[in-house]
Amino acid sequence: MRGRQQALRGHAAMLGFSAAVSGSFSLGAMVANDIAPVALTSVRFLLASAVLAVMVVLLPAAGRHGARGFTREDLRAPWRYAVLAVFYGGYFVLMFEALKTADPVQAGVIFTLTPLMTALIAVPLLGQKLLPRVAGALAIGAVGAAWVIFRGDWTAMVRFEIGFGEQLYFVGCALHAFYAPALKWLNRGESAFVTASLMTLAGFILFATYGWREIAATDWLALPGRVWLVLAYLVVFATALAGSAVQFAAQRLPASRVMAYTYGTPAWVILWELALGHGVPGAIVLPGIALIAVALLVLLRAD
Q: Which residues form the EamA domain (predicted)?
């Protein structure tokens, strides 16, 4: 019974993750040309790390063994947080670079290919078994994603007619696919908030070192107000809360099922696009969206 309760908590965390991350596509596309991706990601990670550190210190059971605050054990082998930051931060840098040209809904659908890549990575890395039902659901989801990406044009699919932004974002999703298995593989008892805080701090150090010229060249005071609003959303919801949710769920669910919630992303993105008045794809993509929904339901039943 306790194991089932923990699994349900993991599912609830990933539902929140799916809703929070989806806003990144529509909002990110609005500011992708206003600020350099590395500069945005560096500041985003710095602020998110601070927010998460405050949560670790103040929230009950936010630290190791149900206590508050950081411990000396949390700081052992700090290279682990750098590795996680490369996967997580690299994904975001490529995402915002891609959104300069990629359609937000298209990007959201490409994101649904992440569970299949995650499952293929988790099998050798964690020794997790890929059940036939799970494999079938991942395959269904991949077909649905392909249908939406190529808008039902199988000729375009055979010729692999896909924009550069979408191709770049696919590489970013490959990095993200390593993130969930690596969380479980590298965890040494740290809580979700501790890992997320130290990972984002490591990400800030790495990306600020790499992109200091872009950061220095950015006229921060002249940035449009929408950039700061989007940055606030990204820090609180798409980084701090979403990162903690993945870490929380990764300790309670198989890696392929953790990332299964990315199948909900297209539906969330379409709702975001409608709310922002950007319009949505035509009815030709509906069969693909339906297949993605079937994949999510099968994966949830498989638990």
A: 10-149, 165-300
